[in-house]
Design goal:
This protein has nine helices and ten strands. The protein is an alpha+beta fold.
Length: about 280
């Protein structure tokens, strides 16, 4: 029983229209030892059946922004988002607890019956889970090889630097350069701009304050996924990314891209090795 985690859980709700005062369950949180863990809606097939495309895109943006706010313990940043305390929860790990609670109360997240529709859905790689997963995978790979272990000094556990009263996301740091990464694998151009600008700006700000080089690793949609979108949408995504790249390259900002997580991890590992040399 000593391995059982105990804590308090809450329901995350979203109000699509303030006029209706109707709230939908879009996630769950679990608090243990003073730290909050979240699992948010990551499948939008059922939402597509209830709302138009613009509302679905708005919800995807809301979830991204909510996770960013929650990380700084800001739980009251919008009237359309609320957390409802539900009581005690326990289990073997925070992941299993969140999965159990999520499957019980977030009915919008249940898989849709239409297999053909699922087959053709664009596969999103949401930024917040990606950041956590990429950090974990890269750190595990470094720890699993003796020849890589010295790279841990360049990849600290705390991914944030405090500069001028702001917490800046800068997960990779060498004596001369800083590095960061982002996922822009979505068909929502607003989300692409938000995620890219937020993390690139953090990296640029820290590198300018400390007079370091900036290296940004971007996970982009693959050609296979882009084929699932209409030509106009593909052009919009390409144009948005080109503008973002151009904007930051003007600041001596090195950008590396890949269309798979494994490839991007390899590029980041190679960069870390080069920095440690």
């Amino acid at each position: 029983m000593s391995n059982i985690m105990k804590g308090e859980w809450s329901l995350v709700q979203w109000n699509p229209d303030v006029a209706t005062e109707e709230y939908l369950n879009i996630g769950v949180s679990f608090k243990h030892a003073g730290k909050n863990y979240f699992k948010m809606l990551d499948s939008f097939n059922r939402v597509n059946c209830l709302y138009d495309e613009d509302t679905v895109k708005h919800l995807q943006d809301v979830i991204e922004l909510s996770l960013s706010a929650f990380k700084t313990d800001n739980f009251y940043f919008s009237e359309q988002i609320r957390l409802i305390d539900k009581g005690l929860a326990k289990g073997q790990s925070e992941e299993k607890i969140l999965e159990r609670l999520y499957s019980r109360v977030v009915t919008l997240g249940k898989t849709h019956a239409s297999k053909n529709k699922l087959k053709n859905d664009f596969k999103y790689i949401k930024n917040e889970p990606f950041l956590k997963r990429a950090s974990s995978n890269l750190r595990e790979k470094i720890k699993s090889h003796d020849s890589y272990k010295h790279l841990l000094d360049l990849f600290p556990e705390d991914s944030y630097l405090k500069k001028n009263n702001s917490n800046l996301y800068v997960p990779m740091r060498s004596s001369d350069n800083y590095g960061s990464f982002v996922s822009v694998v979505t068909n929502n151009v607003d989300t692409i701009n938000t995620n890219y600008l937020m993390l690139a700006t953090d990296l640029l700000t820290a590198s300018q304050i400390d007079q370091k080089g900036a290296n940004f690793f971007v996970l982009r949609p693959s050609a296979e996924e882009l084929k699932k979108l209409d030509v106009k949408k593909v052009d919009e995504i390409g144009e948005a990314l080109d503008k973002l790249d151009f904007k930051f390259k003007g600041y001596d900002f090195n950008i590396e891209s890949a269309d798979s997580e494994d490839e991007l991890n390899d590029k980041m590992l190679f960069w870390l090795e080069d920095e440690a040399a």
